[in-house]
Amino acid sequence: MSTVSFVQLGTRKRYHSLQLVMAQVCNHYKLFLLHNKLKDFRRVQPCVSPDTGKPSPNQKAQSNELHVLEVNVLGAADPATFPLQNKYHTPEYLRTIPHLRTRTPFNSALLRFRSQSIASLTQFFTEQDYVQTHPPIITSSDCEGAGEVFEVGSAHRGPAGKGDDGTFFRSSKYLTVSSQLHLEALAQSVGKVWTLSPTFRAEKSDTPRHLSEFYMLEAECSFVERMGSIMDLVENMLRHLTTNLYSTQELTRRWEGMMKRPWPRITYTQAIEELNKSGQTFEHPHTWGLGLQAEHERYIANTVGLGSPVFVTSYPKSIKPFYMLPSQSLEIGTSSETVECFDLLVPEVCEIVGGSMREYRLPELISAMQANGMVRSDAGGEEDFGALKWYTELRRWGSVPHGGFGLGFDRLLGYLAGVQNIREIVTFPRWVGRCDC
């Protein structure tokens, strides 16, 4: 029988494990040997503390080790069938056991990192006098107008009555694709609001950048007349986050780009010009009037930003949602061809933030809804605008210039943590064809 056993102990407050030394003098030592290689929960009684413990002979590995007097096995697991063995497991394998993968050091570190990031962002918005809100998850409209929504249903369908189709809400409802419209309503009450809440997209995109359920940080601010003010808010927010976390962790080149270098701001038209003169062959076309694809965004982030985030502004009106304010400056043709919006691109991950000034004038909003086929061409006045009637009333009953943005929180964490696939950032990821646990 071995006289000494060594155990690597993971703790809630440490990113690195602590070595435990168990000798035969330790109570229940023989019982422990029966479970020596188990991944279970153990309660130990130390004879020295981790902070003042005996220096380890291997100083390069760790500075302290813990000599154990007593150990009790609280929850045993069969070492032969336990899914997490003492070897390397691929991310693909760990995704098949999402209920267990946070027990690995890397994934538990991501959980802590996520928690620290939320705390830092909450501090930032509190200092900026923003009100944190909780908009609804079930909504009556598709905010983005793209049709990629999950429709909400009930397992029980009752009999249809007069004016009732038998569904739970008596009309079609959806899982939210964005909280923006509701935030606009709240911002007109308290001025500045933000939320960090789940968002759902029924996109059948099986890529490292897409999920069906993810968290979006969104903010809305009243009495803002310049889009630059919204971009300043985004930049200050992300600099605050990275600076706060920098003091506690060793960070990479991308963190330096977030904190120290200036963030360039170019228009969509200038981005197209950069792509045209690049001399590179892209898989997707890059002509004015088409959306930028991931390969285009990646090129712009790497060449224009040189490691720092890049704002791309003033996209064509035809490829953006109805609620965006038309640009006042002339890009191509007439001033109405572009809208006051921006995307924030970062190297590798591409777009992580999208924002805009909102159309706050009722006649112009109605015209935009008509142009997008959302209401009849003769709609106006007291016309019932269906599920968006409440949104038009925000303009009817007093509105001010305002704008806001949405941040893909999980994409941001993946970028800062150096994780290539967003499915490793989310504890229980859902994407097309997969919804485990």
TrEMBL record:
Give the UniProt keywords, A-Z.
Answer: Aminoacyl-tRNA synthetase, ATP-binding, Ligase, Nucleotide-binding, Protein biosynthesis
Q: What is its EC number?
A: 6.1.1.22
Q: Which GO terms describe its biological process?
A: asparaginyl-tRNA aminoacylation
Assigned GO CC terms? mitochondrion
The protein's matches in SUPFAM superfamilies, at most eight in alphabetical order, are given as: Class II aaRS and biotin synthetases
Q: Name the protein family.
A: Belongs to the class-II aminoacyl-tRNA synthetase family.
Q: What is this protein called?
A: asparagine--tRNA ligase
